[in-house]
Amino acid sequence: MATTAIEQTPAHSVEATGLWSWITTVDHKRIGILYGATAFLFFLLGGIEALVIRLQLAQPNSTLVSPDTYNQLFTMHGTTMIFLGVMPLSAMYFNFLIPLQLGARDVAFPRLNAFSYWVFLLGGLLINVSWLFGAAPNGGWFGYANLTTKQFSPGMNIDFWTVGLQILGVASLAAAVNFFVTTVNLRAPGMKMMQMPMFVWMSFITQILLLLSFPIITVALVLLMIDRTFGTHFFVPSGGGDPILWQHLFWLFGHPEVYILILPSFGIVSEILPVFSRKPLFGYAAMVFSGVFIAFVGFGVWAHHMFATGMGPFADAFFSLATMIIAIPTGVKIFNWIGTMWGGRIEFKTAMLFAIGFLGMFIMGGLSGVMHASPPADLQQTDTYFIVAHFHYVLFGGAIFALTGGAYYWWPKMFGRMLDESLGKVHFWLMMIGFNLTFFPMHILGLNGMPRRVYTYSEESNFKLLNQLETLGSLILAVSFLVFMYNIWKTWRIKATAPADPWNGATLEWSIPSPPQVFNFPALPQVSTRDALWEMKRAAGGSVPEPQRVSGKGIHMPNPSFYPLVAAIGVTVTLGGFIGGSHLPVHIAGVAILLFGVYSWAFEPA
Amino acid sequence: MADTAHAHADDHHYTATGIDNRKLAIWTFIGSECMFFASLIGTYLVYKGRDVSGPMPHSTWLLKGVEQEQMLEIPLVTFGTALLLFSSFFVVLALNGAQRGNRKQLLGWLCATIFCGMFFVGMQVFEFTHFAHRGMGYTTNLFSSTFYTLTGFHGTHVTIGLIWLLSVLAVALRGKLPPEKSLNLEMAALYWHFVDVVWIVIFPVVYLIR
After folding, report:
1. Residue A283 — φ and ψ, nearest 5°?
2. Contacts of B52 in chain A (CB under 8 A)
3. Digit-coded pLDDT (tens) for A546-563
4. I need a surface site. Which of A342, A551, A595, B66 has the fewest CB within 10 A?
């Protein structure tokens, strides 16, 4: 492809710079970068929490941290990685890519998009502020009642958790409405649903899962908060409440949540594998329908997290069967990814290494998952490190590998610079080795009886050697991230001159300059096939010229706005007033700020 | 033709389905909120009948040894329910007025809608304070907690809807709701219908079914 220098951009198309322009941005590309940077920092924080856990577990009878601190560490590690790590990293890709891949100028509601980001940032900060009070959430990321009721958790720890998650839920719901409408309504003319890039399809299904599952955890959190604040007995047995209700409500959310975590990564891998196999995605329709099936049936398996609660044989059998059935569409996807590579001409770029690594690691995680699906087997496995192994294989080996691969793949499009391939390969291999060394031994430790959520173990247990290997593995993982950050820093210092299409991509984001101009496309594309850009190149005789930066005259983009941030502050203050009890003045102030923000937003010119 | 297609797509109102983005967004939001109320109603149903003491919805109960009448007073709530249902009809008439540019029709029926909604909320406030006087606090028993939480969240949604409708009324009174902008009322009306439909489920589940 052509590598001509990018022409001088006309003055009135240059984007505003400076802090205020970022605070008031409603541009999906900037919001995506904000999500990514913020999420990466939270991810590092969650990683540090993990390293402290691993250091504590490296020796039997260790007193590096107290039991109470340990509880806070594993709770915050889980909560951070799920809600402040993987989900917002996925949101970075939703934001940056969905309008570009659909051939649109922005999402349906740019200010609502900014609002979602600010609420996420404020919610993440609020939940972490708890560390400064020595009162970080400590009831596990799943907050089982009645451990988390006032009687057994009298401090503010759980208040930070219920309030923080409710705030984050608002961000997710707003974004889900936004991306749902964007996908349905803002596709380029001619682009049918079954012609959308697979990343957009998987993201679309994820939005539907968010819309239907987050309200359920909202209710669970609200009921717990009401128990703690006003003295009701929703989960308090002495007042007639049932702790098992918490588990049902939580897992009715919690199981769809794990598909929310992994489907975007399925989409990323479905973008990377075809490009670096130089072959279209195998079985597009099957990939769509299997994704839909997984999401739908995913609402019917929640009690496989409750096999040890004595639900009875009928319930156990039903949920066991439904869980095993989900393995089928998942298997379809695995075979289709293999089928994509089969007979292709593979290019082992860093992004491709991560995508192939995803495939191997996710298969392993899926296999242990199917083992849990059998209630009698699960009775031995549950609450042991065998489960910890499973979910780290699918969430780290799966989601994190895919999200990292996506970073190498889309970095040139987002920032106009290529990440260094040699450093990338060092990153990949260190991560592969470190990851497996950390998490594979957990299968063995779990089957040998090491329970979850214990702050130490005895010398006689014989858990020491494997724990030490795992700690070593976690340090190797930490080094791999240092290599990644060095790669970012080193390549950031060169000028942004990456070509529009460094990988011979199939989708529309590669048809515009790197990074894109604020209006994305000079003229919105007409689409009539899948892999729209491959089709355009084929029709043009094999390649298209390097797109030039042009004047954006005549293209009206939405104005920046300060009010999404104001409204986000309003939401945070209103809900924050429930920490340590209900403080009416705080609620009133929050609602006032929120109303001011919402009305100003509604009546300002778009 | 390509140019007009591009111009068509670049038209600020272009949508692949032909449905306005904001209308689709309200429907999407409503779908999500249905799950919210489904969870609350589910909790109510799970705990229904599980109390051994304290206020009862449909049977007599003992307060300090003295027998009390059933808690729920159906006639008043039935009347409020009827008004809420009619208000959904009234807002449709108001919307029709907005779409046809008939200012009197728009303003009149919008006021009727808001009046009915305010009566409903007022009835609930009266009901809650009356229950409190009769000995049913928030934490008294499972029925009281689930009842107040479920109907309280619904009442909050009605109140938010009223604030929204009042805002639209203010805009309409200033003459800023011509037919081209009738979507602003339509969005509020859709939300209002949703709030009504949720009540159509809550009313039988809580008040009528024993």
Report:
1. 70, 55
2. 240
3. 999 999 888 989 999 999
4. B66
